[in-house]
Amino acid sequence: MNWPQLQTILWLRLRLARNQFFRGSGLGAVVATVFLAAAVVSGLALFVGGLLVGKFALVGVSSLHLMLVWVGLTVGFIFFWSLGLLTELQRSETIDLQRLMHLPVLLGQLFFINYLASHAAVSVILAVPAMLGLTFGLVLSHGPAMLLLAPLALSMVFMVTAWTYCLRGWLAALMSNPRRRRNVVMGITLGFILIFQLPNLYFNVIARGNRDVAQPAASPEEAQRQRETRRVVDRSRLEQALAVQPFLPPFWVSVGAQALAEGRFGPALLGTLGCLGLGALGLRRAYRSTVRFYRGETGGQAPVASTAPTTATASAPDQFLERILPGVPEQAAAVALATFRSLLRAPEVRMNLATSFIVMVIMMGSMFMRRSLKLPPAAEPFIVTGMAALAVFMVFQFLGNQFGFDRAGFRALVLSPADRRLILLGKNLAHLPLAAVFGLLLISVATIYFSLSLAVFGAALLQFAAALSLGFTAGNLLSIMVPYRIQPGTMKPTKMPTVAMLAMIFAQLLLPLALAPAFLPPAAALYWANGDWPAWMPDAVNLLLSSLLAGAAAALYWHTLAPFARLLQKRETKILDLLSVEVE
Question: pTM of the full predicted structure?
Fold first, then answer.
């Protein structure tokens, strides 16, 4: 090992980390310092908390309960590690090996530094102190044999981080093609969303449905028998779940904790050796795949250059961009069609739309499949109005950053002679189909489920139009004042100024207040329903007021286009600077 070289590399890495951490002056540096201090304090607090729990709360507990404590701690670590896994997989290397390949440096040292830097994750900062504190607390309450839990827990963390690093290296080679990279990230994100929503589906749909079909007990004795039966069933399910722990390497920690509580040292020692072996294997594969990737090798062999050049074939012109939108000015139609085609072709947009659709299906399924969902008739119009507002919420991240996906392409809009008012109109029209699909689907499902009248359905559509007009108005202002670049292949924004980030968060928190007028028509209908009026009067009032609200919101949107266009023309150079900056 070349120690002077290693010291130089470490100095370089620390200086880069310092510059990156305190890059934002003023408020940004203060916020970064606060987050760093909060992470350190949280780690110390969890260490002390684990120490106290192990010393006082776990005195005299059975080996089964001790094992369950470590199961919960392991599950918590894996859960929080999984939450940050997608960001971890997309994160660039701490030290770019490709820039140092021509220098006489030891790549193993650089690789090991990059691996150590990957541990700077919230899950590791919180989980490791908690595990060590709990271990030392158990040493004080159960004896020195519990010291074996420390290397066992650390080896488990090493195993998880090593294979995560190996996965990141494999994905780096797989995603060397930018278009394939975006599709891979989209697939990984959707997979994580589906996995994380499985417990929600089970507890809110399947398990709740099983509880609802249970018949009420006719006597106290029968109720006691039902409780005993449920207790036996739950105990059997717990035993079945715990029986698979020896086959899952992360849970060797809980198996070792139970064995140590029973006076057996073998499982803890074997678990430590097994985790270390698996971690070393993952780290070795990660190093080999990383070196092959930077050397341009695939499958262990050097790539073979193709000898025959490919012949480009002329494709037919895209007729979609030449379409004419009835009643829409030509410049606005061109911007709308080009933006809409760009949105549909961007994997990050498809990923976000698919995510919103999955969340919508799961949420509606968990709500509508409950047999116990009973609402008064007067509250049902508020449900469809809430669905209309929810549809605007789902697409507001697009409405509030309509230029973020243009990136450097925004230069074409700056150089174009098009009226800025028509540019804003075209951007809004491009996002209209996305919101309309969610709005129609949500409102239609709610209307069919609650068997609402056509008048309420029509009123809900008008309320959705009003909410969408208000969303476009607020989105135009945010897109001009607080634009931010979206990285290709991911919905993650670039490093925003702290003031702009706080302004965006504050604006999204105020969005429900901006959409509150959409609930005025059903509230007025509820007031009329409580009076001595004909049965059709509340629906008529709801429909009439919804029409007036939609007209007022559309007028507000139309009259704000001109001042927003002048504001866009003043700030378009600043917007271009923000959108064309590459991520470091």
Answer: 0.63
